[in-house]
Every structure is written in C-alpha cells, then in structure tokens.
C-alpha cells in the first residue's frame, strides 16, 4: 500500500490513481486519509482539519465529508451509494461517525453530529445540546432524504424509512420511520436484490427464503459498544493512534453480530480483545514534500481537439485533390504527346499526297480507268498542269 506524506504532517494511505474526480483538501495539520486497497471514490469531496481521520473501506463510495479537528469518520466495506444523489457527512467538536459494512444508502442523506450552535438551560445556565457521535451498524437500509443527528445508533439489520430524522437508538431487525423517528415494525430482515425488472418467475422465487443470513442476534462477547469505542477514541491523542485502533478493532473485526443490539441488552460493556494487525502492513512511502524524480514512463500523448481533427481532415482532403490534379495533368500530357504524334503522321501523309510523283501516279490511274473516254489524251494535259503547278510552288 502507498503512503503519501504531504506538507504539515498530513498523510494519505492508499492508491490515488483509482479515485475518480476526488477533491481532497487538507486545511490543517497531522490529519490522515486511509483508503483500503479496494476502495474507489467517485465524485467525492473530502476536507480535513487538524488531527482528523477519515477511514474508507472497500467498495465504491460517492460521499462528501467535512471533518473538523480531532474527529474520526469511519465507513466500512461494500456499502452501496445510490448514484442519483450525494451523502454528506459533517463532523464537529471531536466527535465521530462510525458506519459498518454492507449498508444500502439511497440519495440525499446527511449526517451531522452537532447542532452546531449553543443552547442553554435558563435555570442552570448549562449547555443542553452537546455534540455526540453517530453509529450505523452493518446491513442497514437507509431510504432517501434521511437525516442522522447526534446520538443516533442504528443497529445491524434495520431499515430507516424515507424522509426520517434519526435522533436515537434503533434496534436490530426493525423498521423505523418518521420525524422524529419511531419504530414501526420489529422482527424483520431484508435483502439487497432490486425488484424493478422482475418477471413473475423471479418474484415467486423470492417469496420465501430458507436462510437466516440477515437475522441478527445479540452476543455480549462480540458486541462493539459505541460507548466503549467512544471512550477509547477519546483516550487517543493523534490521528495515527486512532487509525491503528479502528483498523484493528473495527476493520479487521468480521463478527456478524458486532453491531447487533436489542432492547434491554447490556450496552455499557468493554470492547472485545483484538490483535494489532496494522503493524504488519507494508507501505511504499512517497514523500510529496520533496521534489519527485521524473517518471520514466512516457508522457501520455495529448488528445487532439475537435478543431485540430477538423483541420487535419481538411488537409488530407486538400492533399487528395492535389494528387488528383497531378494525375489529370499526367493524362493531359500523355494525350498531348499522342496528338503531336498523330499530327506528325498526318503532316507526313499530307506531304506525301502533295508530292509530284504521287500526283502524276494518281493522274495516270484516273486516265487508265477512263481510257475509253480519251483518258490518256487528258492525261497528257493533266501532266502539263501538275508540272506547271509544282514549278510555280518551286517544288520542281
């Protein structure tokens, strides 16, 4: 995995070449963006303030994140984001947003863990709207235009209805909706297949599912208590320490029921034990604060503009026309040569026809043909005329 070291102690873990239209802005110091090896971001904006951490797991994500100082934004593996709209996350006042794996998010969804302005009780003069973290478990289906506010915890396997405002704990395998949100059905599970283009056979196929893949159970030994996670994050000082914790305790935790929770189950319990797997990761360090060596790879050939392509096509047409003209000129030259040859032959023929011997011979032939009409007598006079004519032309 690549480790990009940037100015002011900011670090990016991950392959930036896989990201599509990513706008990244480090506005402070010592912040970290961690992109898992199979993470791909599309049309995403991320702004990080001092000592903050954004951790994004495998899969395609289309999100906007603004994270203020000392907060953690964690989004796990294979979460689906509907391309019709964005999901916006705003993290404030050192609190966090933790989202598990395999969730389904519709569009126009936003998360805010602060109000963000101050509200006080006029009797005690104490603040009554503290900023609090947001937790979303695994395999949670969120409808469009949902708002998650401070103190939300949606346990694994739940459904959040369209246009809901989530402000509290929603138990596993329940349907919740409304503003403010309330539970409307329990003991349900859901699957991610989309029914839009199903025929009757496909519909009948899914009328009954003989498995328990998305039925969750509470297990105290596996439960990742949001309270315990909060206490651990509060005890850590740097973004690097928090990165290693969430990688080891959450990202590497593959227990199905880690965020499963039901009514009246123990909540305030310590975290399960976990191994330090982060230390075994290998990184290729790229110090972007220093001048980078010139890449040996050939520079990509710039693509011609439409105007350049049009000019090139016109030049090719002009060259073709010029060649056609050259070919036509060659044909004309050959034709002129042939005409000259014919003219010479014609001239020779004319010269032969006008020769004295030719004329005398021709007169003799005519006389012989007309001998019975006195042709030979006429021949004598015709010879005298031909000689006189040639004499006058100077040809005798």
Mean pLDDT: 90
Number of helices: 6
N-C termini distance: 112 Å
Spans where pLDDT lies below 50 across 5 or more residues: none
Percent of residues in helices: 25-40%
Radius of gyration from the alpha-carbon trace, in angstroms: 47 Å
Strand order, largest beta sheet: 21-18-15-12-9-6-4-2-1-24
Main beta sheet: strand number and arrangement?
10 strands, mixed
Q: Strand portion, in percent? A: 15-25%
Secondary-structure element order, N to C = EEEEEEEEEEEEEEEEEEEEEEEHHHEHHH
- How many strands? 24
Structural class by SSE content: alpha/beta
Shape: rod-shaped
Would you mind describing this structure in some detail?
28% of the residues lie in helices and 22% in strands. It has 396 residues and is α/β, with parallel strands linked by helices. A ten-stranded mixed β-sheet has the order 21-18-15-12-9-6-4-2-1-24, covered by helices on one side. Strands 3, 5, 7, 8, 11, 14, 17 and 20 form an eight-stranded parallel β-sheet that branches. The radius of gyration is 47 Å and the shape is rod-shaped. The protein starts with a strand and ends with a helix.
SSE arrangement:
Blueprint: E1 2-5, E2 11-13, E3 20-26, E4 32-35, E5 39-48, E6 53-56, E7 59-61, E8 64-67, E9 72-75, E10 80-81, E11 87-91, E12 97-99, E13 104-105, E14 109-112, E15 134-136, E16 141-142, E17 147-149, E18 153-154, E19 159-160, E20 165-166, E21 169-170, E22 174-177, E23 182-186, H1 200-205, H2 226-235, H3 239-251, E24 284-287, H4 306-353, H5 356-369, H6 375-393
Parallel strand pairs: 1-24, 2-4, 3-5, 4-6, 5-7, 5-8, 6-9, 8-11, 9-12, 10-13, 11-14, 12-15, 13-16, 14-17, 15-18, 16-19, 17-20, 18-21, 19-22
Antiparallel strand pairs: 1-2, 22-23
Helix pairs in contact: 5-6
């Amino acid at each position: 995995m690549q480790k990009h070291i940037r100015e002011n102690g900011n670090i990016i873990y991950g392959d930036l070449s896989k990201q599509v239209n990513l706008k990244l802005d480090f506005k402070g110091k010592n912040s970290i963006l961690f992109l898992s090896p199979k993470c791909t971001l599309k049309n995403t904006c991320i702004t990080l303030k001092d000592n903050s951490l954004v951790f994004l797991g495998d899969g395609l994500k289309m999100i906007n994140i603004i994270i203020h100082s000392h907060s953690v934004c964690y989004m796990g593996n294979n979460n689906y984001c509907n391309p019709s709209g964005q999901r916006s996350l705003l993290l404030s006042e050192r609190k966090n947003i933790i989202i598990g794996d395999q969730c389904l998010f519709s569009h126009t969804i936003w998360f805010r863990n602060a109000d963000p302005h101050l509200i006080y009780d006029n009797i005690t003069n104490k603040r009554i709207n503290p900023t609090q973290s947001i937790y979303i478990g695994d395999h949670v289906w969120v409808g469009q235009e949902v708002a998650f506010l401070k103190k939300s915890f949606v346990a694994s396997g739940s459904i959040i209805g369209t246009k809901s405002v989530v402000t509290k704990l929603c138990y596993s395998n329940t349907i919740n909706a409304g503003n403010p949100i309330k539970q409307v059905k329990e003991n349900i599970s859901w699957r991610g297949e989309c029914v839009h283009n199903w025929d009757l056979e496909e519909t009948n196929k899914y009328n009954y599912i003989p498995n328990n893949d998305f039925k969750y159970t509470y297990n105290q030994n596996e439960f990742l208590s949001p309270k315990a996670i909060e206490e651990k994050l509060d005890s850590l000082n740097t973004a690097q320490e928090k990165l290693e914790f969430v990688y080891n305790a959450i990202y590497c935790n593959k227990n199905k029921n880690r965020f499963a929770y039901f009514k009246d189950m123990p909540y305030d319990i310590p975290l399960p034990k976990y191994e330090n797997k982060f230390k075994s990761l290998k990184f290729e360090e790229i110090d972007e604060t220093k001048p980078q060596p010139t890449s040996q790879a050939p520079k990509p050939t710039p693509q011609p503009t439409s105007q350049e392509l049009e000019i090139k096509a016109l030049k090719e047409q002009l060259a073709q026309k010029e060649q056609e003209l050259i070919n036509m000129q060659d044909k004309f030259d050959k034709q002129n040569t042939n005409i000259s040859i014919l003219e010479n032959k014609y001239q020779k023929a004319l010269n032969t026809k006008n020769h004295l011997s030719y004329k005398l011979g021709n007169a003799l032939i005519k006389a012989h043909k007309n001998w019975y009409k006195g042709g030979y007598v006429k021949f004598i006079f015709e010879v005298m005329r031909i000689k006189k004519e040639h004499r006058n032309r100077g040809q005798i």
